[in-house]
């Protein structure tokens, strides 16, 4: 049973094709059009599709796609085996819930912490019984650099440096880099430490565009052996959701 899975994020559109749990193809786009979708439809002939979007308005191609194949709009009431205790599920980002579903689908009966690094950094945990109580949202890597530049008169805009591993900066550039990157590192380890209290075994799943960078920040930490990088976590969660939806 082949499915087309689409995740519309703040900056990129990610599309994958699954045959049950097996990912056949995955791509990301800055924008998508009807010919690109038609190419996937003709190549794989999926029988259903699911779309998740963090945006309030729908893309024009969604209506066209819905005329060609059964299309499900993912929402945060499609828990797919997760016990969602979030007090306002209608305000929960669909990408966050999809990532939690993906984590539990990959590691059923285990505790997992999903850390997604993108425009924002999100932390979402699901326990071994599939309970999701909520999580945390903080500014992302690039947002922190831009904020220091935008909200001060004299601090320059600089880029992240994965090779920077110094505790203290000795000039303005390295002081900013130390504050931003070490700040994220200490934030990451602090959240991981707090989630470790739910049980000895905790899968730490890094996802999003900055997942490799975060893995570098954590490479020398005591949590390094628990870390798993899964760039397609949201897509896998959406695929699990569409399979469960048809059960």
Question: Would you kindly provide a written description of the structure presented here, covering whatever features stand out?
Answer:
- The protein has 247 residues and is of the alpha/beta class.
- Helices cover 35% and strands 26% of the residues.
- It has seven helices and twelve strands.
- The chain has helices at 34-44, 60-68, 94-106, 141-150, 172-195, 211-217, 233-245, and strands spanning 2-8, 13-19, 22-29, 48-53, 71-73, 83-84, 111-117, 120-126, 131-132, 135-139, 202-207, 227-229.
- The strands form three sheets. A five-stranded mixed beta sheet has the order 3-2-1-4-5, with helices on both faces.
- α3 (94-106) crosses α7 and α4 (141-150) crosses α5 (172-195).
- The mean pLDDT is 93.
Short description:
With 247 residues, the protein is an alpha/beta fold.
Question: What is the terminal-to-terminal distance?
Answer: 13 Å
Rg computed from alpha carbons, rounded to a whole number of angstroms: 19 Å
Q: How would you describe the shape? A: globular
Described by strand count, sense and barrel closure, the largest sheet is:
5 strands, mixed
Low-confidence stretches: none
What is the overall number of helices? 7
Keywords summarizing the entry:
12 strands, 247 residues, single chain, five-stranded mixed sheet, alpha/beta, 35% helix, globular, 7 helices
Write the layout of secondary structure elements.
Layout: E1 2-8, E2 13-19, E3 22-29, H1 34-44, E4 48-53, H2 60-68, E5 71-73, E6 83-84, H3 94-106, E7 111-117, E8 120-126, E9 131-132, E10 135-139, H4 141-150, H5 172-195, E11 202-207, H6 211-217, E12 227-229, H7 233-245
Parallel strand pairs: 1-4, 4-5, 6-9, 7-11, 11-12
Antiparallel strand pairs: 1-2, 2-3, 7-8, 8-10
Helix pairs in contact: 3-7, 4-5
